[in-house]
Specification:
By secondary structure, the chain is an alpha/beta fold. The protein contains eleven helices and ten strands. The N and C termini lie far apart (53 Å).
Length: 273
């Protein structure tokens, strides 16, 4: 029976995903210069950061970015893939799928802050986020795996089709071309392209609007859950999920505050309860 072969890259003991908090926002920094390519070890660290943010009741929004100015991430480390046997590569992709699904299913808003080139598996990470904010003139975006004789194997074929539509997704993947953030925005793949000056400060300002006391964090999380889970259900089942989540929100203090503030013509002060 074939067994998966671990490579030296997978024994890396460096911190490849840095975790820090600014207020109610958790920041994940993909950090393996020069291109922030990911190995199995980086994906394991990303998985751990996702779980850490999930269990932290203070965290209401997650922002993921790449280290440096040139790359968000260039995807999977090709040297690692070249050295690993097919069994290892299969489980590597399986774990990456599980990690990105965990990110997508986390009931907290996730923003991919695309600070540079975002290609291959890097785009697959970004597509598991809820919102993608790119830095103007900072790089290209795309899924070029076909040029290596493979397909985008950590959710790329499925998430891209759900975001831009079947025909456009197929065209982008079979050509393997990279394109500008502005073109990505025109097809709904990127939410916004912000000017490069003060870009990071503006990303954080953008993220803060979804945290307490500006927004009811429970409502934000339940909206995400209703959309993400509902899209995988029949329409009638998704309406049932929506009603149940709404019922939970109606019982919350924040809903009472929001409705009362509207009647009293004042700004609500949400507490996440």
């Amino acid at each position: 029976m074939a067994t998966a072969t671990m490579t030296e890259t997978d024994k890396d003991t460096r911190t490849l995903v840095e975790y820090r908090k600014e207020g109610n926002i958790a920041i994940f920094l993909l950090s393996d210069p020069p291109a922030n390519t990911y190995t199995h070890e980086m994906m394991r660290q990303l998985d751990e950061c996702i779980l850490r943010a999930r269990f932290d009741t203070e965290v209401q929004c997650i922002v993921i970015r790449g280290a440096g100015e040139k790359f968000f991430s260039a995807g999977a480390n090709i040297k690692m893939l070249n050295e690993a046997d097919p069994v290892f590569k299969y489980y590597f992709c399986l774990h990456a799928n599980e990690t990105l699904s965990r990110l997508e299913q986390t009931p907290k808003l996730v923003i991919a802050a695309i600070n540079g080139h975002c290609v291959g598996g890097g785009l697959e990470i970004a597509m598991a986020a809820d919102i993608r904010i790119a830095r103007a003139e900072a790089g290209k975006i795309g899924l070029p795996e076909v040029n290596l004789g493979v397909l985008p194997g950590t959710g790329g074929t499925q998430r891209l089709a759900r975001i831009v539509g079947k025909a456009k997704a197929i065209e982008l993947m079979v050509t393997g071309r990279s394109f500008s953030f502005e073109e990505a925005q025109s097809m709904g793949l990127v939410t916004a392209v912000l000017p490069k000056d003060d870009w990071w400060d503006n990303v954080m300002l953008y993220a803060q609007q979804f945290t307490l006391p500006n927004k009811a964090s429970m409502a934000v999380g339940h909206i995400k859950r209703s959309v993400v889970s509902g899209m995988e259900m029949s329409f009638e089942s998704s309406l049932t999920l929506e009603r149940e989540l709404q019922n939970l929100l109606f019982k919350s203090q924040d809903a009472k505050e929001g409705i009362a503030a509207y009647v009293e013509k004042r700004q609500p002060v949400f507490k996440g309860k």
